[in-house]
From TrEMBL:
Protein name as it appears in the record: Uncharacterized protein
Region (Disordered): 70-93
Organism field: Methylorubrum thiocyanatum
Amino acid sequence: MNITVSPAGRGRFHAHLDGRLLCTSLTPFFSAARVLKAEGVLPQEPLTMTHDGSTMVCLTSTVGEAANFTVDEGRNGGPTLRPYRPSPFARPE
């Protein structure tokens, strides 16, 4: 499965799979993986990401692994991969 991302403004990106919008996020690869996992895609399914208009793969993982992470824009030296924790303010589905 390949996620294609395109700019959405203000640091956000649209994440598409086969033309279908999965999400708009600051971390589209990881957010899209969580959407796919919630839709029942198997965790071991390979997942890649390309930018719209390019064929170069810039990220690769599995749905299950990618769904477990997010990016933290830390104060001490830039972005860091961190375990994903849902917001305590998120509404249950």
